[in-house]
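Let us work through a complete example step by step.
Step 1: write down the sequence.
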Amino acid sequence: MITCAIHRYEKGNTVPLNPRTAVTWLARPLALCVVVAVATGCSTSNASTSPPSQDAQNCAWPLIVSAQTANVYIPDSNAFYWTQPIVADQHTTIQIAGRFPDARYVSLSVYTPSANPFTINGVSSSLPDYRIQPQPGSQNPWQQSAPPGGSFSVTIRSGATPNEANTLPMPAGTSSQHPGYLEYRVYLPAAGTASQVPLPTITVAEGTASRQLSACTTHTPVQLPGQAPGATPTPGTSGTPPVAAGRFYSRWAVKAPVFSSGG
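Step 2: predict the structure and record it as tokens.
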């Protein structure tokens, strides 16, 4: 059994959460579990896997999770998660370049093929908004009073060291059947919709060759594995209908599934 103290970061400060608030923050990482199940073709009962589609490997941000597409795991309808599968080795470098959006919270996080965050050489696989250094001539609105729209650049690579700004470690052991994951989180965008959030570009470098991934023409809405599109959910199940944007649901009595690293 794992026991943990729950805090959240708010513009550089660590803020303890009360139990009711903590439930919604604990639920958010579960969005990645849904993404992993879909991207790898997993079932919640039988762990059979198949490779992600070529589109998921060859264009930027193919997957999106939100309460409007997957109303499960105590969703916050103002939270949006774009996900990029990663297949790389120690010679691969990934560059993410974007602009600070007009939103309450933003982060970039990298996960192992088993959907776990990790730390290598003291470098965490998560980079919250207030730690993202802006490009020269730009400002980070989570570091000082500034309008959104400033530019940033973040690198994912092997051998990252703690003194490097805007650098995330590369997940090890990735393959076409078991990719790692890059997740771009945006909470409470000012427009109230994912369509108005500018997505960062992704450039993949192998040695001296590099290519920028084209933007995916569509962002596949993630559904629960085994749930047919348009199916009417059975009352009392987790497959409840999508919620309207701008509303917040905190289901204190809902029991979330327990994920064990012991298989």
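Step 3: interpret the result. The helical segments are 19-27, 30-39, 54-58.
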